[in-house]
């Protein structure tokens, strides 16, 4: 009887020792970064800074832009307003004089930018050394940001048969991040520095009243709308 009690005690101590070893020993199958963050955190979208550039020919006789280039300036300025950061720089060859603002092509570019909604203070003129080139262009530049999608490993590189732990696969969520990187309108928003606009309190109150009354809170369909499924491919 005493022998049985002793054996049972030894067995219980052995089990407790094994459990303690499991609790304290590191799991070599679980990467350290799995202990913090989420799957999407392990597939972050990067942000890179880039410079947008437009070169425009100058009429050397009048120092104005050559005819037919106004639309190119407007398109460039439109992109600047949509995704540009900092000032819009208009650089002119230094051979036109010490004051770049006095060059007719610079004034023309600034006037077009102003007409497109860019403040005069956001357009800065610079002079640059053209190295003696007689056909040196007027150069418009601004800074913007690009979203850098994470690298997603090929499915052949993922060991789906490795079930030593209950971890998610390394590629899980990566394709979501790639799609997000392609859809972000202004990658600088990933820095989180732009303040959010205030919410519409009246709109929220109207939606809340509809909810309390048991009414639909979504947009209602008009008479000319339908939810019928197309049969064109049948």
Features of the shown structure:
234 residues, alpha+beta, 60s Ribosomal Protein L30, Chain: A, extended, Pilus assembly protein CpaD, signal
Class based on secondary structure composition and strand pairing: alpha+beta
- What is the CATH first-level class name of one domain? Alpha Beta
The gyration radius over C-alpha positions equals 32 Å
What characteristic shape results from the CA principal axes? extended
Under CATH, the topology of one domain can be stated as 60s Ribosomal Protein L30, Chain: A
Number of E strands: 4
Tell me the helix content: 25-40%
Task: Give me the CATH architecture of one domain, please.
Answer: 2-Layer Sandwich
The residue-averaged pLDDT reads: 81
The strands making up the biggest β-sheet line up spatially as 1-4-2-3
Protein name: Pilus assembly protein CpaD
Pfam family, one: Pilus_CpaD
Keywords: Signal
Organism: Henriciella barbarensis
Describe it.
The chain has 234 residues and is of the alpha+beta class. It has a domain at 59-145: 60s Ribosomal Protein L30, Chain: A. The chain is 30% helix and 16% strand. The chain has a 4-stranded mixed beta sheet with strand order 1-4-2-3. Helix 3 (104-115) links the parallel strand 2 and strand 3.
């Amino acid at each position: 009887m005493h022998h049985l009690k002793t054996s049972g005690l030894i067995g219980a101590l052995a089990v407790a020792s094994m459990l303690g070893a499991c609790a304290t020993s590191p799991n070599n199958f679980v990467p350290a970064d799995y202990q913090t963050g989420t799957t999407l955190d392990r597939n972050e979208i990067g942000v890179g800074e880039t410079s947008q550039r437009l070169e425009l020919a100058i009429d050397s006789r009048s120092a104005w832009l050559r005819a037919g280039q106004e639309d190119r300036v407007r398109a460039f300025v439109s992109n600047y307003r949509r995704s540009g950061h900092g000032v819009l720089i208009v650089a002119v060859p230094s051979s036109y004089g010490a004051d770049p603002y006095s060059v007719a092509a610079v004034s023309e570019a600034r006037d077009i930018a102003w007409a497109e909604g860019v403040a005069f203070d956001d357009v800065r003129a610079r002079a640059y050394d053209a190295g003696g080139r007689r056909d040196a262009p007027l150069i418009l530049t601004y800074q913007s940001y690009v979203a850098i999608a994470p690298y997603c490993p090929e499915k052949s590189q993922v060991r789906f048969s490795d079930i030593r732990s209950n971890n998610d696969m390394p590629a899980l969520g990566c394709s979501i991040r790639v799609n997000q990187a392609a859809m972000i309108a202004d990658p600088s928003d990933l820095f989180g520095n732009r303040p959010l606009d205030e919410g519409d309190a009246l709109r929220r109150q109207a939606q809340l009243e509809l909810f309390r009354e048991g009414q639909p809170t979504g947009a209602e369909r008009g008479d000319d709308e339908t939810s019928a499924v197309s049969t064109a491919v049948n």
